[in-house]
Amino acid sequence: MQLKCASCVSEYLEKMNSNGDADWEMVNEGITLVPAWQMQTMGVQQIVACVALPTCMKHIGMKETSAAERALSSGLLLPGPVL
Asked: Can you give the residue range of the structural domain that contains 54?
């Protein structure tokens, strides 16, 4: 059994639900695993986990960022001058 790209499968299901004419051939094989944060609330607890999702090369979003940009995007650094 081949792993399929989670993002491609999501797009396929979205097209099937919206207009009913989606082609399974557009779903690529998941050639690598990428980390993704998942959150789920159970009662009053919130569970956060890092899981590995199968992904094709089309859906891997890689760009070079500085440490300050990563800290700012994650909320660990407030906007303003960086010393």
From this structure: 6-74
